[in-house]
TrEMBL record:
It comes from the Bacteria. CDD domains: CYP170A1-like. Gene3D superfamilies: Cytochrome P450. This is Cytochrome P450. Keywords: Heme, Iron, Metal-binding, Monooxygenase, Oxidoreductase. Belongs to the cytochrome P450 family. InterPro entries: Cyt_P450, Cyt_P450_E_grp-I, Cyt_P450_sf, Cytochrome_P450_Monoox. It holds the Pfam family p450. Residues 1-28 are annotated as: Disordered.
Length: 455
């Protein structure tokens, strides 16, 4: 018996329709406010109800605003990955990757990729993470301005590509991947929020640059796959797992699926980590007292030698700093689902086919869940305080069957990078830096420029 074949329980007849959120504009509904200031808009929705109806143009969308109901949504089989956000992603990145599949194909794909991300697989990536974390700080010259956007992208792409698609040739490829992915992400968000199809076909410089980068991304992935095959090597890595994967019938998976899977892992793996590194750099600059605490902890653990992967386990405070950065600046700030049948959430009726949206950003900054909710306070993650935080009020990697497979992989590299940065430098923002929040597929600073000062 598959999960899909389970008959859903009959819905209670007295289910209510969720209240409509206030503040809609005639004709436009809530769309205008959502586009103008999405973070403030999502953060205020809980005042209107636990589940609320939004009008986006002619369409009704449901928003879930409490931690327990976002958990219920993510853990329920009544909702799948679908909706406009995912459709536009599929159009650009491919339809056969794990991030957009549902049902048996999704379960099979998760089984294929999961071993590469298991907790006991992470130490094998240690030497690469260590090398990349130190290479990042060694590239920088004290006093010279660091462009945090490109540098964060660079290290995130290099770590994902070198760890998961191993091979010496990755060094040059990782550089090309950085350029392609950064451009693709910039253009993709624009195409998702302003879906003016024909406009993006015009031969404008920005469209040409986007198309070139997208084509190069797909070409790079084809080259990586072809070279691995030609080498005859089968290292124990994610690419080998994908190349050897079998479908539901026990046949090898198709070329398109292999390609889309590599894209579906590299793309979320680089933008999310890069954005978080930018916010960690920002935090080190804006909270020198926190930077000093990280440095002190690292030195206590390492005795002054360069921080190593093996040290990460002992860096409890540095880990809490990363968690707190993910709370206030969750890279994935909005998520959507679609109801596959008439169902209920929080006592409200949700019709089959409805699109549901929620914001980890709003949930993780909510004053109802966190004392001094907007304060950067890594100590709130200490064991005696963490118990006060409601369940599902902190899930930057989500929960359930779509939970990010890379939570351990990401936390290990982010903790190591934060430790390496804070022990070598203090940071100052320089003239021209813009640390305002840029809302895109992920959240990141508009243009963070820092000057590293040797400790
Ligand atoms: C899914 C967050 C890093 C690969 C997700 C989801 C979240 C998330 C919230 C769930 C989406 C949903 O529920 O609809 C993050 C954050 C990261 C991070 C905050 C780092 C700070 C990575 C990395 C990789 C990765 C490094 C790969 C190298 C994926 C994949 C999925 C996913 C493949 C789709 C899983 C599925 O649908 O089954 N991520 N992620 N992520 N993430 Fe991550």
């Amino acid at each position: 018996m598959t999960v899909e074949s389970v008959q859903p329980e009959a819905l209670a007849p007295d289910l209510r329709e969720p209240p409509r959120a206030g503040g809609g504009v005639p004709g436009l509904g809530h769309g205008w406010k959502l586009v103008r200031d999405p973070l403030a808009f999502m953060s205020r929705l809980r005042d209107h109800g636990d589940v609320v109806r939004l009008k986006l143009g002619p369409k009704t969308v449901y928003a879930v605003t409490t931690p327990d109901l976002t958990g219920a949504l993510a853990l329920s089989n009544d909702f799948i990955i679908a909706g406009p956000l995912w459709e536009s992603l599929e159009g650009l990145l491919g339809k056969e990757g794990v991030a957009t599949a549902n049902g048996p194909r999704h379960r099979r794909q998760r089984r294929t990729i999961q071993p590469a991300f298991r907790l006991d697989a992470i130490p094998a990536y240690g030497p690469i993470m260590e090398e990349e974390a130190h290479a990042l700080t060694e590239r920088w010259k004290p006093g010279e301005t660091v462009d945090c956007t490109s540098e964060s992208f660079r290290v995130a792409v290099r770590i994902a590509a070198r760890c998961l698609l191993r091979g010496d040739y990755m060094d040059e490829r990782a550089e090309r991947l950085c350029v392609a992915l950064a451009t693709v992400f910039r253009g993709m968000y624009r195409r998702m929020v302003v879906p003016l199809g024909p406009l993006y076909k015009l031969p404008l410089p920005a469209n040409r640059e986007f198309n070139r980068a997208l084509a190069d991304l797909h070409l790079l992935v084809d080259e990586i796959v072809a070279e691995r095959r030609a080498s005859g090597q089968k290292p124990d890595d994610l690419l080998t797992a994908l190349l050897e994967a079998k479908d539901e019938n026990g046949d090898p998976i198709g070329e398109q699926e292999i390609h889309d899977q590599v894209v579906a892992i590299l793309t979320p793996g680089s933008e999310t980590v890069a954005s978080t590194i930018m916010w960690l750099l920002h935090m080190l600059a804006e909270h020198p007292e926190q930077a000093d605490r990280v440095r002190d902890e690292v030195e206590a653990v390492t005795g002054g030698r360069p921080v190593a992967f093996e040290d990460v386990r002992g860096l409890g405070h540095t880990n809490n700093v990363v968690v707190e950065a993910l709370r206030l600046r969750p890279a994935v700030w909005i998520l959507t689902r679609r109801a596959v049948r008439d169902t209920e959430l929080g006592g409200y009726r949700i019709p089959a086919g409805a699109d549901i949206v929620y914001s980890p950003y709003a949930i993780q900054r909510d004053a109802k869940s966190y004392e001094r909710n907007l304060e950067f306070d890594p100590d709130r993650w200490l064991p005696d305080r963490v118990k006060d935080i409601p369940k599902h009020a902190m899930s930057p990697f989500s929960v359930g069957n779509r939970k990010c497979p890379s939570d351990h992989f990401s936390m290990a590299q982010l903790t190591l990078i934060t430790a390496a940065l804070a022990t070598r430098y203090r940071f100052e923002q320089v003239a021209g830096s813009n640390d305002g929040t840029r809302v895109g597929i992920t959240l990141r600073p508009h243009n963070l420029l820092l000057r590293p000062v040797r400790r």
